[in-house]
C-alpha cells in the first residue's frame, strides 16, 4: 500500500508544484506586532515577531430546514512561515491549516468536502459524538479528486474540538503538512458562562505545532527514534515567532496540541498563575488555578489569563523528562498596553458532570505494546476488536509498559479516574477524549459511548502520537444495540481486501 507521504514529499522534492504563494489566512499574518514593545517598524525582524494569525470562522450556508452547510477543500499550497522563505504546505480552503468551524448543540451540520490533493485523505471530527459513518476515520476515504458529504446533529456539551486527516498509515505526514482546524461547539450554558467569548479579540484559538524547516524552506520530515517528528520551530496557528497584542484584561486561549508527537508543558514566562476553564470535551465545573498545565498530542485545554497594561509575557513550553517534551521554547508572545477591563472568571462554570460508571459497568484493559500494537495486535481495518453497547458507560484501563503514549477514543467522552494510580490533576478532571499515559504506568477512565448503533462501521481508539497510530497502535470498536453484542460479526467485508502494512 503506497499511501505514505507520496503527495507531500513529491511537493517537497519537485521544487514546488506551481501553486501561487499564499498566506494561510486572509488577515495580515506577517506584519510587525501593532505597538508591541520593541516593534521593528516595517522590517518584521525576528525580535519583533509576527502577528498571530487567527483562523477565520467558516461561514455556513443555511439550508431551508436550518441545516448549516460548510464547505471544506483539502488542498496543496505554499506558505511564507519563515520570513522570505517559501514552504510547500497543505491546508483546508487555503495553504496552511483550516478555518474554524463553529456550531451550537442542537444544530444539524452538513459538510461538502473536496479532496484536491493527489493523495487519498479523510476528515475526522476529533472529539465529536456522532455516527461512525460520519466520523471521518480510516474507512471514510476521500480519493484524490473526490468528495464526501457527512451530516449529523450536534448533541454534546460546548467544547473546543478539531478536525484533521485520518487516512490509515498517512496521518502523520498529512497533519505535518498542515491539515488541521478547530471545531468549536457552543451550547446555551457556554453562551452565558461569563467567560471571554469575542472570537479573535479575547477568545483566542491557539493551534500549537512544531516543525523543522530544511535549508530550502521545505518541512523536514526527519524523525527521532520511536516517536516520529519533533520539530525545532514552534508555530502558533501557523505563525512562527507569534505575537498577540491583547486589548482586554483577561484573555481566553483555546489551546490545541496539534503536534505529531510533542507534549507541551505550558507555563507563562514569568510564572504567573492562570485559570484552566476547559478540557478536551467540555468546560470544567469550576475554574482551576495553576501555573502549569501539560497537553499531549490532540489534547485541548482552555485557560484564562489576566493581563495588565505594559505586560510583555510569553507562553512557553518547558522541557521535561520525556523524549516528547524535550527543550524549552517560546510559543506565543503576548503584549498589552491599554486594556479594556474584563469580568473575573466566574467561580462556577457550566461544565458537564463527571461521567459515572455504574457498579455493573463492563471493564476492559488495553495494553500498549512497544509503539505499534494494542493487546498484541497491529491495526487491521477488517477486524473488529471490541464491541460496545451503544450509549453504555464502561471502565477502560490503558496499560503502558514502555514508551510515552496517549490514548484517544472516537465517538466517546470520558472522565479520567486515575493516572499512575492517582486521581488526575484538577485541570484534567473534566470531560476528555484523549488521555496522556506516562511510560510504565496506566490510566483508568470511565467512558460514555455514542448512542449510534451500527455493527458494520467501526470507531477507532489509538495512540495520538501520529507515528504510533500510523504504525498500527490502533484498534476498532463498534457500538451496537444493547443485547446484540454477542452476535455482532468481528470481521468487516472491505472493498479491496483490507489493509496491509
Ligand atoms: Cu504512542
From TrEMBL:
The keyword Zinc does not apply. InterPro entries: Cu-oxidase-like_N, Cu-oxidase_C, Cu-oxidase_fam, Cu_oxidase_Cu_BS, Cupredoxin, TAT_signal, TAT_signal_bac_arc. Gene3D superfamilies: Cupredoxins - blue copper proteins. Residues 1-22 form the signal peptide. Transmembrane segments: none annotated. It is an enzyme of class 1 (oxidoreductase). Its EC number is 1.16.3.4. PANTHER family: BILIRUBIN OXIDASE (PTHR48267:SF1), CUPREDOXIN SUPERFAMILY PROTEIN (PTHR48267). Monomer. Belongs to the multicopper oxidase family. This is Multicopper oxidase CueO. It comes from Agromyces salentinus.
